[in-house]
């Protein structure tokens, strides 16, 4: 089962914003990509056959190789539920959040104090999975937007619900089957009686619900609102957007891309779904300096009498211009070929012309009325945000007038100037094919990455197959084999991918996205076949169900990043990329190298790398396993007494507490293998460092009020 639910609009530009839905799940071992050598006997923690195992490493081994000298079973998880729990286990989240599988070498984190912002359709802000342990809503703000249709005199309308009482009355858009409820819960779902919780169950939620048609202005408004909320409350935010478009410059200079840069520069982070078009042939690259043959392809196939919208864009790497030609094909035969439309004549006409339209004056190709009913518009010129030449073709084909074999609409692109050109069909509406004509060519599926996910200021997330099959309440079984999703532990074959103009591989990372079970709502139309369980609470029914897509992968990654931000609030976008590069699990990419840059996100090893590499200013956060803390009063309360144990005797060493801004809050002299001290008097996050002689160790801890 694949959902490809796309949302589109027109100028606001007729950029289609697609909700990237699918349906599947995954299981991969926790293998670090770090090659940092082990300087002393150390240990790592892995889930092996359902058990938490501590593996010891010898000096000279690397964390990349993980050659275990010994494996001790140190924990037994509770009965496994086949749901988002598998996502959590698969990428190491269960080693971070509280529970039986939590690794003892780090403090537990739940995303507390971090804002997760979701812009999506079909959000139920009052689902029970968004409550905290006290039964209070973690939804701090819910915004419901309605954008203008095609009319320029209509403007975006936004209903804002900012109190618990207001949120209880908020409307729910049901057009996308509860898609936004599912993605939000994947990032941050929680409920004490619910096993289907997300990655960051204590994160604050800022939700923006959008109708079935999503426009740039809605997305931009929601992104800014969520980011501004976090900034106003002195918190970090991770935004997750499971939507995108095959159209656009693919370089971060679209309107949404520019806002992504703005938000990143203010210190907040953004995840975008890569897209679910990995099996669609919708892109052609051509450097006309190397091959001057015009590119010809068919991009609109007759579909049985429906109006067929078939957008097309051609982008040059610089200002070099390209020309456009249109064809009407009948099977493999050209029955109409237009003249070449030059940039200059379009630019002289104001940058936008009518090529063909019933009843219109001033059309450049009126003879097409003999073959087609509909309308075709064309834009040409320099796109100011990036200085690149582009062609935009808007074609609405209502009817073909030629009898016999159903005809197709084709195009030609050429450049007398030698432009390095990328041609994008919008994969939801149309792909690029030859229809057996040797002069025409197919597009590639290797450059289907969403325009929004191609921004250099966002984390683009592809989809991993983490489970082999899933069974719904209806008895329907969804499996990798019958859905043609590919192999277990490998990228889902529908994951969009590509490269930037500079050659950087996208998406950046993979996260579980196949057969994910997360929250829905019972009123969601057409989703009953995907329900896996329900429950009644205070007379209200709540449901959880299966969905698949990079839509599910993006919030999973966002939830993991929220855990990291709770542990280290100063992490930047550049830090995140570095963490992905050094800790992502590359095993999923063996034989699938084009599907991601770094591999599968690894929450546990990413966290340890962040704490080790991006330490508190002035503090070397090393060798935490050489330092252990016992809370003599039962918990880490401000001012309470603790006992500290070190792995070797120290003499006249210094034990110091540092705040996250590097200030030393308290220091004492210590000797021996254990000592007592009191925690700082103010709650907060601190690093305790013990150093003296040849010994140095540090440990991060949260001091509660």
Q: Which CATH-level-2 architecture of the largest domain?
A: 3-Layer(aba) Sandwich
| CATH C-level class of the largest domain | Alpha Beta
Fraction of residues in H or I helices? 10-25%
Principal-axis shape equals elongated
Class by SSE composition:
alpha+beta
- Summed up, the domain count is 3
Largest sheet: 8 strands, mixed
CATH domain fold name of the largest domain: Rossmann fold
Number of DSSP strand runs: 39
- In the predicted model, the low-confidence regions spanning at least 5 consecutive residues are 1-83
Strand content: 25-35%
Annotated CATH homologous superfamily of the largest domain: Peptidase S8/S53 domain
Mean pLDDT, to the nearest integer, reads 82
Spatially, the strands of the biggest sheet line up as: 9-8-10-7-11-13-25-31
Q: Give the distance, in angstroms, between the N- and C-terminal Cα atoms.
A: 49 Å
Rg calc: 27 Å
* Helix segment tally: 10
Question: What would you say this structure looks like, in words?
Answer:
The structure is a single chain. This protein is α+β, with helices and mostly antiparallel strands. It folds into 3 domains: 1-278 and 445-580 and 589-614, Rossmann fold (3-Layer(aba) Sandwich), CATH 3.40.50; 283-425, Jelly Rolls; 624-703, Immunoglobulin-like (Sandwich). 14% of the residues lie in helices and 34% in strands. The two termini are 49 Å apart.
């Amino acid at each position: 089962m694949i959902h490809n639910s796309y949302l589109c609009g027109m100028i606001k530009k007729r950029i289609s914003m697609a909700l990237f839905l699918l349906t599947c799940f995954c299981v991969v071992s926790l293998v670090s990509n770090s090659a940092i050598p082990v300087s002393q006997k150390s240990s790592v923690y892995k889930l092996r056959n359902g058990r938490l195992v501590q593996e010891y490493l010898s000096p000279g081994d690397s964390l990349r190789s993980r050659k275990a000298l010994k494996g001790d079973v140190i924990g037994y998880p509770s009965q496994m539920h086949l749901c988002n729990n598998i996502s959590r286990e698969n990428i190491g989240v269960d080693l971070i959040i509280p529970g039986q599988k939590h690794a003892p070498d780090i403090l537990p984190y739940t995303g507390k104090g971090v804002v997760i912002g979701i812009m999506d359709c079909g959000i139920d802000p009052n689902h029970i999975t968004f409550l905290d342990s006290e039964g209070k809503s973690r939804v701090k703000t819910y915004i419901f937007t309605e954008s203008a249709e095609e009319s320029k005199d209509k403007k975006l309308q936004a209903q804002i619900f900012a109190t618990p009482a207001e949120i209880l009355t908020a409307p729910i858009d049901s057009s996308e089957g509860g898609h936004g409820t599912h993605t939000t819960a994947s990032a941050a779902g929680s409920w004490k009686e619910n096993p289907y919780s997300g990655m960051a169950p204590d994160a604050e939620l800022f939700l923006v619900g959008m109708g079935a048609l999503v426009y740039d202005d809605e997305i931009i408004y929601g992104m800014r609102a969520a980011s501004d909320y976090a900034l106003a409350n002195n918190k970090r935010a991770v935004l997750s957007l499971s939507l995108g478009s095959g159209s656009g410059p693919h370089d971060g200079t679209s309107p949404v891309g520019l806002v992504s840069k703005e938000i990143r520069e203010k210190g907040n982070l953004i995840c975008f779904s890569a897209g679910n078009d990995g099996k669609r042939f919708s892109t052609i690259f051509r450097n006309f300096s190397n091959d001057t043959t015009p590119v010809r392809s068919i991009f609109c196939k007759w579909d049985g009498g429906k109006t067929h919208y078939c957008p097309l864009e051609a982008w040059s790497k610089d200002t070099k211009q390209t020309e456009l030609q249109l064809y009407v094909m009948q099977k493999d035969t050209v029955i109409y070929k237009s003249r070449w439309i030059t940039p200059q004549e379009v630019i002289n006409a104001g940058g936008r012309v009518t090529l063909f339209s019933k009843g219109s004056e001033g059309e450049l190709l009126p003879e097409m009325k003999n073959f087609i009913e509909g309308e075709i518009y064309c834009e040409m010129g320099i796109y100011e945000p990036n200085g690149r030449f582009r062609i935009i073709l808007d074609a609405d084909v209502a009817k073909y007038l030629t009898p016999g074999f159903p005809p197709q609409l084709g195009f030609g692109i050429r450049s007398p100037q030698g432009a390095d050109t990328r041609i994008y069909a919008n994969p939801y509406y149309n792909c690029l094919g030859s229809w057996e004509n040797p002069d025409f060519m197919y597009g590639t599926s290797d450059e289907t990455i969403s325009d929004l996910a191609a921004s250099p200021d966002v984390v683009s997330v592809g989809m991993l197959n983490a489970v082999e099959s899933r069974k719904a309440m209806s008895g329907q079984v969804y499996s990798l084999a019958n859905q043609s999703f590919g192999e277990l532990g490998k990228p889902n074959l529908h994951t969009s991918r590509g490269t930037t103009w500079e050659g950087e591989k996208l998406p950046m990372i993979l996260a579980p996205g196949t057969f994910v079970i997360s929250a829905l709502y019972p009123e969601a139309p057409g989703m009953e076949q995907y329900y896996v369980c329900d429950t009644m609470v205070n007379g209200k029914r709540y449901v959880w169900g299966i969905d698949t897509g990079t839509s599910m992968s993006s919030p999973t990654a966002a939830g993991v990043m929220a855990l990291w931000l709770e542990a280290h609030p100063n992490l930047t976008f550049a830090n995140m990329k570095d963490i992905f590069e050094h800790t992502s699990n590359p095993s999923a990419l063996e034989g699938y190298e084009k599907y991601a840059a770094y591999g599968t996100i690894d929450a546990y090893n990413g966290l340890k790398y962040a704490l080790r590499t991006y330490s508190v200013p002035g503090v070397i956060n090393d060798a935490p396993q050489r330092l252990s803390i016992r809370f003599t009063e039962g918990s880490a309360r401000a001012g309470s007494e603790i006992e500290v144990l070190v792995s070797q005797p120290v003499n006249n060493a210094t034990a110091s507490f540092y705040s996250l801004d590097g200030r030393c809050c308290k220091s004492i002299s210590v000797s021996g293998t254990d000592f007592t001290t009191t925690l700082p008097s103010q709650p907060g996050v601190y690093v305790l460092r013990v150093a003296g002689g040849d010994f140095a160790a540090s440990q991060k801890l949260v001091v509660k009020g």
